[in-house]
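Entry type: protein chain
Record version: 2
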Amino acid sequence: MERREKDRRRLFTWRQKLSLLRASAFRCSRCGVSVSQSDWHAHHVIEHSQGGATELFNGMVLCVKCHKEITNV
């Protein structure tokens, strides 16, 4: 089995966030509620702690409520 090195960058960049937001049509990927540029979170589909990359293919837009539900915060 090939071992992957953990992505050193934990947070999505401003440009990555903007790309995610535009690709989602300014909607939460989970519940579909409209979000603005300031009331959402960029979430790793495969958690960073589980080896998920901080790249667009592994990111999704979540409203604050959905992000809290998913991460149990």
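Comment: The longest helix spans residues 14-23.
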